[in-house]
Design brief:
By secondary structure, this protein is of the alpha/beta class. Helices cover about 40% and strands about 20% of the residues. It folds into 2 domains: about 170 residues, P-loop containing nucleotide triphosphate hydrolases (Rossmann fold); about 35 residues, no CATH class.
Length: about 280
């Protein structure tokens, strides 16, 4: 099956000779939630900047729907309409006078009329519980509110693929839960999600697939339950096993859970198993 978005042999060297990507290969399937896991400095953010055309590889190719992308302005415009990006630091993306103005920038740039743009802005802000902040200056937002506004701006563009750099970093549990609920809704409606994180527990409970990074390349990619249950692989990538996966393994070891039963993926799954005892 052709990948919706793909990187082949990507190499990128920053000024000063710092290699961030080193022959990296990554396939992103349509409609999936892919977590990119790895320690700081592994090249995760640099990869996202390649996947929407912000950075151009020193060598290698990006493919969209099986076709090699171009970097001329007309191609970049189409590419970035289809592939949205939300950076970890929202201050790098917010620039308009108010939240509503900022969120409307993308839809208006798509050529939508003001009525449709306002509709998209209202829907995006409501989804992230930010409607009451529509007229607030962006510089007066909290960290979490800024992150929500940046994500709302991306959602309003309705991209096919949404790239998120550490989406819940810095958010309290309520903000993180609200964001993940909205991202799950987007996924159910067909949006392909790709997010970087160092949080193996988030990847375990939320992602369909995982790509493990190390030294600027993908060390392993596959189904979440296969990759994150591989203790040796995680140790080599300087990642700890997901807590819920460890609980599941302990339940199997004690025969509380059948050896051929699927591992629990969430706190609710674990509680359900305990209640059955």
């Amino acid at each position: 099956m052709t990948a919706l978005l793909e990187g082949r042999g990507l190499t990128y060297v920053y000024p000063g000779g710092i290699t961030a990507l080193s022959g990296l290969d990554l396939r992103i399937a349509k409609g999936r939630k892919l977590a990119i896991l790895g320690p700081n400095g592994a090249g995760k953010t640099t990869l996202l900047l390649h996947l929407n055309g912000t950075l151009r590889p020193s060598s290698g190719q990006i493919l969209l729907d099986g076709d090699i992308v171009g970097y001329e302005r007309k191609y970049l415009n189409v590419w970035r309409r289809r592939v949205g990006l939300v950076l970890q630091d929202a201050d790098d993306q917010l620039f308009a006078a108010s939240v509503a103005d900022d969120v409307s920038f993308g839809p208006l740039n798509l050529g939508l009329d003001k009525t449709e743009a306002r509709k998209r802005v209202a829907q995006a802000l409501a989804a992230l519980d930010l409607s009451e902040l529509a007229d607030r200056p962006t510089h007066m937002l909290s960290f979490g509110q800024k992150k929500g506004a940046a994500i709302a701006g991306a959602i309003a563009m309705r991209p096919e693929v949404l790239l998120l750099d550490e989406p819940i970093a810095g958010l309290d549990w309520q903000g993180a839960a609200l964001l993940l609920t909205e991202l799950e809704s987007l996924a159910r409606n067909g949006t392909t999600l790709v997010f970087t994180t160092h949080d193996v527990d988030l990847a375990w409970s939320f992602a369909d697939e995982v790509a493990i990074f190390g030294s600027g390349r993908v060390v392993a990619q596959g189904a979440t339950v296969e990759i994150l249950a591989d203790i040796a692989l995680l140790a080599a990538a300087e990642l700890k096993p997901p807590f819920i996966a460890r609980i599941g393994a302990a339940l199997k070891a004690s025969s509380t859970l059948a050896s051929n039963a699927p591992l629990p993926r969430s706190e609710e799954d674990v509680l359900a198993l305990i209640e059955k005892r």
